[in-house]
Structures are given as structure tokens and as C-alpha cells.
Design brief:
12 helices, seven-stranded mixed beta sheet, 14 strands, VC0802-like, single chain, alpha/beta, Rossmann fold, 2 domains, disordered C terminus
Length: 409
């Protein structure tokens, strides 16, 4: 009995040793959604921060997070922390790290720096010193050094400094996770796939309830909704992840985790997602992207203006990403008034959501939003607004409810 207890304790300690801390980067406003995603996947010690969520998991979970997470931009694995007050100390600390255990001379690398420090206030300088120290380490060991590739490096290294505290991390994702792999065609102002997925998840939309994007552009919001409805992993269409170039990459483990994710894909023939756009060229791009994402059975496309499109009856969720007025020649006030009129006339029973940075134009919608969520579309601070559309007005609804209750009293 005692031996069994000791064995169990040793097994538990070994499992805990395999866990390590990671950070999932995201967009401002999506931190709570990403934290929920991580907890649902089974992450431990999940904690939300500004544009990031920290958590713990093992190597397999790191692979799983990259494959499955819809609202993460990248997954960082911290490998070293230290203090440095000047460039000499920084160089020395980086030089001491066993970089040859992580990647080889045949691999390219690049440095990405995030600076919040009075001691070190230039990210490019920080990246340069880190690159020099790593290159010198290899040259000292092997007589030559790996090359730098700023465009598509095999290994991406992240340096984060706050004050004199440094955290060195490996970027396990490589290219940003918003690059799903299905989108070849884009419109004039395409929405980021991570933001699109986050917006869908913020609405609490539940398949098979109707989902509509009546100004779909290149189709990203509708596609992300379809991926969610069919439980298709966000990383299903990607060719590679950053961790595949690391020396400790476990190809068999990765394949097991990918196969497990693929087995959970469903063929939800109940859900109908409707995507329409007046622009023939944009709609063509959307249809191409929908085929690439293999969701053409779920997403139905229509060439139509928002005014002419007729939604199916019943309940549903609408997300619209209209022009914000950033480009010349856009009469956004008139457009937003038209959108409000369409919501009131055609979308009774629907929850209608809009993302925009133009809060002045929002006043012309003629509806009061029931929710306002701050998000960022690229550098633009936006509001994600919810308009719950009733039959008639809220005032009539309240009156009807009162009249029904009075006879019972």
C-alpha cells in the first residue's frame, strides 16, 4: 500500500514537472473569450492580462492550443528570465543560454522585442543585441552561425522587458495564428480572422440558430462562424507551426493531437449561415475563401444589398462590419441610417451586432445599443454594438406585458 502511494506521488510529481507556463497573445477586448477557450481545452492556472492570457500545460497542450484556439494570435513559451540594467549585462545573459539545444545552424531565426522600460527604450536595439549574442554563441561553439530571416524564420524568439526584468520566450506559432490558411482572397479592408472569430463568440451565438452577415466582404466572419458550427479547428488549414522546427519537436505526439481534433469535426447540416454583399468582386472572393475552408455546405452566399436581402424568419444573430468612413467618398451617416432602418424593418427577433470606430455615425442608426464592447480592428479602437430588435418598440412590448399580467392580479 505504501509503495503504491509513493508511486502515485512520484507519478504526480513527474507530471507536474512536465507542465510549463505559456502566454497566449490576443487582441484587446478578446482576453475573456481566449481565457474561456483555454479553460475549455483544459489549461491550468489561466489568468487574463492586457492583450494576453497566461496558462500552464505540457508539450502536447502547447500543440493543441496552436491547433484549436480561435482567438489567440500566437503562443509564447518562456524559457528564461533574468535581470539586466545595461546592454553588457543583457548580452552576457543571452550569450550564456544554450541556444544550440533549441535549434541548429541550418535553421534561420529572428528576434521580436516588446519594451516597457526606461533602461531599454528601443525595441530594434534590443533585438539587435539579442541577435548578436545568439550569433556569437553559435560562432564560439561551432565556428559559424545560423542566418537571420526577418520574413519567415524557422525560429522566432521573443524578448520582453519591463524595467530591468527580462523574459525570453520561443514563439511556438511561427506565423500569426490569424493566418488560418484558407483565405487567399481579400477585399479592400479585410477583418482579421482572430477578430472575426472573437466577434462571433462575443455574441453567444449558438448553432443551429440563423447567422447572417449581410455585408460580408471576403467572407471572413461567416467562415469563422461556420468553423465554429462544424467544430473545425482554427489551425486545420495551416501548413506548419513554429514548434515544428524546434529540436524537441515530437512529430508522433503532434499527429496524435491533430488526429484527435479532426475526429471531433462535425457535419452540422442544421446550421445555415447567410453571407451577402452587393459587390460582385468581393462576393467572388468570399465564395473562393468559403470553398477553401470547406464550409460551402454551411455558408450560403447571395449577391444583394443589405436593403434588398431578406433574412429567414425566426430568431438569429447578425454581425455587420460596415465602412467606418476612413476612406474618402463614403457617406457613412446616410449608410448607417439605412442600416438602422433595415434592422427595424426586417430583423425582428434577431440580435444585430455591428463593429465600427465611427461613434458619431452610430447616432444615425436610430436604435439604442443594448451592449457596447471595446475591441480593436487593427490600430482602430472600435465598439462592438448589440441591437436587440423587437416586433414594434420596447415600449409596446412592456405595455403588452403589463396588460397580460393585470387580469391575473
Amino acid at each position: 500500500m505504501l509503495k503504491q502511494v509513493q508511486h502515485d506521488e512520484q507519478k504526480k510529481m513527474k507530471a507536474e514537472e512536465q507542465l510549463f507556463k505559456m502566454t497566449a497573445k490576443t487582441m484587446a477586448g478578446l482576453e475573456p473569450i481566449l481565457a474561456k477557450e483555454l479553460m475549455k481545452l483544459g489549461a491550468q492556472k489561466v489568468e487574463a492580462h492586457n492583450r494576453a492570457v497566461s496558462f500552464e500545460g505540457d508539450k502536447g497542450f502547447m500543440y493543441k492550443a496552436n491547433i484549436q484556439l480561435r482567438t489567440a494570435l500566437r503562443i509564447l513559451k518562456p524559457i528564461h528570465t533574468f535581470k539586466a540594467e545595461n546592454e553588457v549585462q543583457l548580452y552576457g545573459k543571452i550569450f550564456e543560454m544554450p541556444w544550440e539545444d533549441i535549434f541548429g545552424l541550418e535553421n534561420t531565426f529572428a528576434i521580436d522585442s516588446t519594451v516597457n522600460s526606461e533602461l531599454f527604450n528601443h525595441s530594434k536595439f534590443l533585438s539587435q543585441k539579442t541577435k548578436d549574442a545568439i550569433a556569437d554563441r553559435f560562432r564560439d561553439k561551432f565556428g559559424k552561425r545560423p542566418n537571420v530571416d526577418l520574413e519567415k524564420p524557422d525560429v522566432k524568439i521573443n524578448v520582453h522587458v519591463r524595467g530591468d526584468d527580462f523574459t525570453i520566450s520561443l514563439d511556438s506559432s511561427g506565423e500569426s495564428l490569424h493566418k488560418r490558411g484558407y483565405r487567399e482572397e481579400t477585399g479592400v479592408a479585410p477583418i482579421n480572422e482572430v477578430l472575426a472569430a472573437g466577434l462571433v463568440m462575443l455574441t453567444d451565438w449558438t448553432p443551429p440558430i440563423n447567422f447572417i452577415d449581410p455585408m460580408c466582404g471576403s467572407g471572413t466572419i461567416a467562415i469563422e462562424a461556420a468553423l465554429i458550427a462544424n467544430n473545425i479547428p482554427a489551425g486545420y488549414f495551416r501548413n506548419e507551426f513554429g514548434f515544428e522546427k524546434w529540436k524537441d519537436f515530437d512529430a508522433d505526439l503532434f499527429q496524435v493531437i491533430m488526429d484527435s481534433a479532426i475526429k471531433k469535426i462535425s457535419d452540422d447540416d442544421r446550421t445555415r449561415i447567410y453571407a451577402s454583399d452587393i459587390n460582385r468582386q468581393d462576393l467572388g472572393k468570399a465564395e473562393e475563401n468559403i470553398r477553401n475552408a470547406k464550409v460551402e455546405d454551411t455558408v450560403k452566399t447571395f449577391r444583394s444589398s443589405i436593403e434588398d436581402f431578406t433574412p429567414p424568419p425566426g430568431m438569429g444573430t447578425v454581425i455587420i462590419n460596415p465602412p467606418y468612413g476612413e476612406r474618402m467618398g463614403e457617406n457613412v451617416n446616410e449608410l448607417y441610417k439605412s442600416i438602422g432602418d433595415v434592422f427595424k424593418k426586417k430583423y425582428a427577433g434577431y440580435d444585430c451586432w455591428m463593429i465600427t470606430s465611427n461613434m458619431e455615425a452610430v447616432k444615425h442608426i436610430g436604435l439604442k445599443p443594448t451592449r457596447k464592447i471595446t475591441v480593436f480592428n487593427g490600430p482602430l479602437e472600435c465598439r462592438f454594438l448589440k441591437f436587440s430588435i423587437y416586433e414594434g418598440t420596447k415600449k409596446i412590448h412592456k405595455l403588452e406585458g403589463k396588460e397580460k399580467k393585470e387580469p391575473e392580479a
